[in-house]
Amino acid sequence: MEASSTSASTSSEGSLRRRAPRMCYCPSPQKPVLVVSWTNNNPRRRFYMCPNYWIGKKCKFFQWVDYEICERGKVLIAEMRQRILKLQAEGCCLVDAGLVPCWLLLGCNFDGLVPC
Predict the structure, then answer these.
(1) DSSP string, 26-84
(2) Which residues share a beta bridge with 110?
């Protein structure tokens, strides 16, 4: 069986890469959106969900994209994420105090959090 005909393949990172689902199960089907989990149990783990979930329709469509991360990986990712958030906050303080120009920190944009 060729790789193109399978429903999953392995990326260079070793994570499961499932093909994007075409539609959810709502009465008016929507294209599922890709979301990244930042919970302690599933840090940085990607999944597809129905875009209607957050607007009260509560579609039950949910599909993981990646394999579950091992326990040690979960701890390390949580620690690194806390360090990043702390550094971002410190960077914002430096910008607010006028000690560092805002543009200098723009390259440190993690998860869409802009420091200034």
Answers:
(1) SSS----EEEEEESSSSEEEEEEE-TTGGGT-----EEE-SPPPPHHHHHHHHHHHHHH
(2) 113
Give the global pTM.
Answer: 0.56
What is the SS3 assignment for 6?
Answer: coil
With the CA atoms of 101, 102, 103 and 106 taken in that order, what torsion angle do they form, in degrees rounded to the nearest 10?
140
**Strand ordering across the sheet containing 43-49:** 33-38, 43-49, 62-64
> What are the φ and ψ backbone dihedral angles of 106, each rounded to 5 degrees?
-65, -25
pLDDT digits (tens, 9 = 90+) for 70-113: 999 999 998 998 898 888 888 887 878 887 777 666 655 545 54
Which of the pair, 107 or 63, is modelled with greater confidence? 63
Q: What backbone phi and psi angles, to 5 degrees, belong to 97?
A: -80, -5
Radius of gyration of the chain (CA): 19
Give every CB contact of residue 56 below 8 A, 6+ residues apart in sequence: none
